[in-house]
From TrEMBL:
This is PX domain-containing protein. PANTHER family: SORTING NEXIN 17 AND 27, SORTING NEXIN-27. Residues 1-89 form the PX domain. PROSITE patterns: PX, RA. It is found in: Early endosome; Endomembrane system. Residues 94-181 form the Ras-associating domain. The gene is ORF65467. Keywords: Endosome, Lipid-binding, Membrane.
Length: 264
């Protein structure tokens, strides 16, 4: 019997009970001081559908408890278990669904292969959203520590990043964002209704996150936001501090010396 593993609403992999048993033994040897929860008991006879479902839930609860300990969840042993393996390929599970967060907080769900790189995934997302005409001005990002949004490299594997961040509270750590810093060029995109909607919600999201400093324009922006007047909202927000800027997390080091730079 193969159990499909879901965590935080994401399908990570498919594993048999004996593989859980092996994982449990390996983790206990690697982390001898940790009090591991018990696995659902072994059964020597055929299980009913209800019993199989109970076992599946028990196995998921085991993983959730163990992975809540960051050092265990991020260990090589656990990551290898959660990553796609031979069983997934045998079962024909190479195709998976990937959730991508959009600025309006909706999700774009695309079917991809586990081994697809960022470029391939990006093309699938753009095609599904019908944003081909503005594809050069957007890209895929990963939400990392301090809610910083890191632009993915073309040859990275988004699905690997997706499953490695299974413990995050949100449905996905992969998002689609604008990658354009020239206002004049951005204004040319507003003739495309899909692009205009995307830019509007991106600006709303940046205001909500405090990236854009609204000053005394907060209430005017709220009114425009409620009516979804995208053109006037963007016209106002473009003049505010923080618009179309990249904000890096604060550096914890308070010692600055000559020659220290930020690589962009």
């Amino acid at each position: 019997v193969v159990f499909n593993i879901y965590m935080a609403g994401r399908h990570l992999c498919s594993r048999r009970y004996r593989e859980f048993d092996t994982l449990h033994g390996n983790l206990k040897r690697e982390f001898p001081d940790f009090s591991f929860p018990r696995l659902p008991g072994k059964k020597l006879f055929t299980l009913s559908e209800q019993q199989l479902d109970q076992r599946r839930r028990g196995l998921e609860q085991y993983l959730e408890k163990v992975c809540a300990v960051r050092v265990i969840g991020e260990s090589e042993t656990m990551q290898e278990f959660l990553a796609a393996g031979d069983l997934d390929e045998e079962e024909g599970n190479n195709e998976v669904e990937l959730k991508v967060l959009l600025p309006d907080k909706s999700l774009c769900i695309v079917s991809i292969c586990r081994s697809d790189n960022t470029e391939s995934v990006y093309k699938a997302v753009i095609a599904k959203l019908h944003l081909e005409d503005v594809a050069e001005y957007l890209y895929l990002f990963e939400t990392v520590e301090y809610n910083f949004e890191r632009k993915l490299l073309p040859q990275e594997l988004p699905h690997n990043i997706y499953i490695q961040n299974y413990s995050t509270a949100t449905a996905t750590c992969i998002l689609l964002k604008k990658w354009l810093f020239t206002i004049s060029r951005e204004m040319m995109l507003t003739s495309n209704s899909a692009a205009l909607k995307f830019l509007f919600w991106q600006a709303v999201d940046d205001v909500n996150k405090g990236i854009i400093k609204t000053g005394d324009k907060l209430y005017e922006l709220k009114a425009l936001r409620e009516t979804e007047d995208a053109i006037e909202y963007l016209k106002m927000v473009r003049h505010l501090e923080g618009y179309s800027e990249v904000v890096f997390p604060h550096c914890s080091c308070d010692s600055r010396r000559d020659g220290h730079v930020v690589a962009i």
